[in-house]
Amino acid sequence: AQSVTQLDSHVSVSEGTPVLLRCNYSSSYSPSLFWYVQHPNKGLQLLLKYTSAATLVKGINGFEAEFKKSETSFHLTKPSAHMSDAAEYFCVVSYPNQAGTALIFGKGTTLSVSS
Amino acid sequence: DAGITQSPRYKITETGRQVTLMCHQTWSHSYMFWYRQDLGHGLRLIYYSAAADITDKGEVPDGYVVSRSKTENFPLTLESATRSQTSVYFCASSESMTGYQPQHFGDGTRLSIL
């Protein structure tokens, strides 16, 4: 079965320091990969997506992610954290060739940002 | 404003009651989805719909019923609510289900069943 693993359930950083949220996926096919962010009492908002074009994907709010096929990873990074980045982040995999498959969500990483 | 709207945002009900969660989108997206979000499980797909009058089960469909008589609406009904259905429910829509297009989410309905 296809799956996605977010390696850290909670990440804490100081404001102005880099952010790294790790994601690995299982792959039998060429996946599409997404990162979503969820702020408290809100729905999920798309940060960025990879769909087999450039391996380094830039998203909103200064986030980017690099697709590494050899490592089956899609880690999310940001050079400098802001307080407003504190939220829940979900790595999501989709396998477009499988009929009936929607999105497979990781269990989420809570990002805390301290001043 | 274009978007996806869920109602109610909060609901408390009792076991055995029927409850319907509403979802309305203004993009005219063909695909709509219902998820539940629980601690430790992330989001799990309940049902999805490819078009009006076309629906199919997701990962956790038991105890839920959906309908889609109009493209823009996709209500989710719990016919006889149980405590295990206490959760946050998210509706989403997408131009396609191939995975190349992202899904757009509503703000969720927090449902508590006593």
Overview of this protein structure:
The complex is a heterodimer of chains A (115) and B (114). Chain A has 115 residues and is mainly beta. Chain A contains no helices and twelve strands. In chain A, a hairpin with a 5-residue loop joins strand 5 (32-38) and strand 6. The radius of gyration of chain A is 14 Å and the shape is globular. The mean pLDDT of chain A is 89. The model of chain B has no long low-confidence stretch (mean pLDDT 91). Chain B contains no helices and eleven strands. With 114 residues, chain B is mostly beta strands. In chain B, strands 2, 4, 5, 6, 9, 10 and 11 form a seven-stranded mixed sheet that branches. In chain B, strands 1-3-8-7 form a four-stranded antiparallel sheet, with no helix packed on it. In chain B, a hairpin with a 2-residue loop joins strand 5 (42-51) and strand 6. Chains A and B meet through strand 5 and strand 6 of A and strand 5 and strand 10 of B.
Q: How would you summarize the topology of this molecule?
A:
The complex is a heterodimer of chains A (115) and B (114).
Chain A: E1 4-6, E2 10-14, E3 19-21, E4 23-25, E5 32-38, E6 44-50, E7 56-58, E8 64-68, E9 73-78, E10 87-94, E11 104-105, E12 109-114
Parallel strand pairs in A: 2-12
Antiparallel strand pairs in A: 1-4, 3-9, 5-6, 5-10, 7-8, 8-9, 10-11, 10-12
Chain B: E1 4-7, E2 10-13, E3 19-25, E4 31-38, E5 42-51, E6 54-57, E7 64-66, E8 76-78, E9 87-94, E10 104-105, E11 109-113
